[in-house]
Amino acid sequence: MGQRPNHMDPDEFRRQGYKAVDWLADYMARLDDLPVKTPVEPGDVRAKLAVSAPKHGEEFSAVLADLDRVIVPGLTHWQAPGFFAYFPANASGPATLADLVSSGLGTQGMMWDTSPAVTELEQHVLDWLAVELDLPERFRGNGVIQDSASSSTLCAVLAARHRAGGIEALPTLVAYTSEQAHSSVIKGLRVAGIPDDRIRIIATTPEYAMRADHLAYEIVQDRKHGLTPFMVIATVGTTSTTAIDPVGELGWVAANFDAWLHVDAAFAGTASLCPEMRFLNAGLESADSYVFNPHKWMLTNLDCSAFFVADRASLNNALSITPEYLHNPASEAGTVVDYRDWQVPLGRRFRALKLWFVIRHYGVEGLRAHIRRHLAWAAELTDWVKADDRFELVAPTVVSLVSFRHAGGDTATRRVLDTVNQSGRAYLTATTLNGQPTLRVAIGGTRTERHHVEELWSLIQSAA
Ligand code: PLP
Hints:
Distance between the termini: 70 Å
Radius of gyration: 24 Å
Number of domains: 3
Strand order of the largest sheet: 1-7-6-5-4-2-3
CATH class of the largest domain: Alpha Beta
Order of helices and strands: HHHHHEHEHEHEHEEHEHHHEEHEEH
CATH architecture of the largest domain: 3-Layer(aba) Sandwich
CATH superfamily of the largest domain: Type I PLP-dependent aspartate aminotransferase-like (Major domain)
Shape: globular
Number of strands: 11
Bound molecules: pyridoxal-5'-phosphate
Number of helices: 15
């Protein structure tokens, strides 16, 4: 027998665990003082790491100390209050602690039988969400947590492909999405075997919403050519401008041709927690599947994507394979949900725990307050942009993303972007609309306060 591995016993785990939590609490406390976007160059982080793996275990304190020496300088601080780039990836205290508990439990919830609480809590909190978001009845009892909106959309594509005849039908299947759809849509379609020349990119209105008349026209043309329109993918809250596709009209067209309608509300979906934002749900009763990401704007740390499917049989039949070693009486009796049949991987961790912690810690009213602050500040920022003739708004502010550019042209817009980002106080990203760079201010950070938005606006004005 060789050496025993140096497992942490419960006492040692407690001691080191407190230190790790202390370290994190200190990190949270200094988030406002760190440069939001790291200035490191490629290779800088690796240059600080030991060339080879340690042969013998080290003191845990040495590992923790290296977080400050090696890791923090190479991080872009997504939880910093001056983070306005991409869309937010909200982390929160209760979700962080839930992830810690989930890791410590180390359970694997691939089937109800492998840990009933993992499955039943997931079903339950997703039903809570379906009710609080006021999702159509067809999605109640039909939710699952995926790692990402990309995976959720891929699963929707696989279910739609199955319903349309599966692999045998593949050579004729055609999918439709807007030119503003997220890249994960094309990726999911490609992974499912739909080639680019059978993915129709539908034109948008001046507000960047998919045109239902163009969709209908393209579908009719494809049908004339003997092809099978099998899927339409709409977006509620596009990545560039949070444009809202006309889901009801698209659903009507899709239903007429037996095509599956999937709705990607990755970022904006959380806002439906607020009754006054329920216009975001318009037409959803005609959707076959729906995804939104609590890991973006609902205070639930990455990764947590909530996917709802009306026709769960298509999804399960597309993804279920039962080898001998997974047989068990509960599954055979058909009385339980086995989430392995709702996703691509087999194994699954206990993500529902963090939704449960978050919803119970904040309460629905607390979550609404989180959203409403951002909506209000985005409306204010929109007014400030409108009132300054050096800038022009390029799209309506629908939720908490404000998209605008410098009236002086592309070089001036890029200069504003670079200057703000180099300040270290705030971080923005740009998109391209009608061939022109456009600034995006995505307001939604867990720690962002109104004065951070004001500071950002001052930085933008000074850079103008
Ligand atoms: N869909 C939309 C509209 C998005 O904005 C994003 C990411 O920002 C995604 C999908 C991808 O999300 P995920 O990283 O969860 O795959």
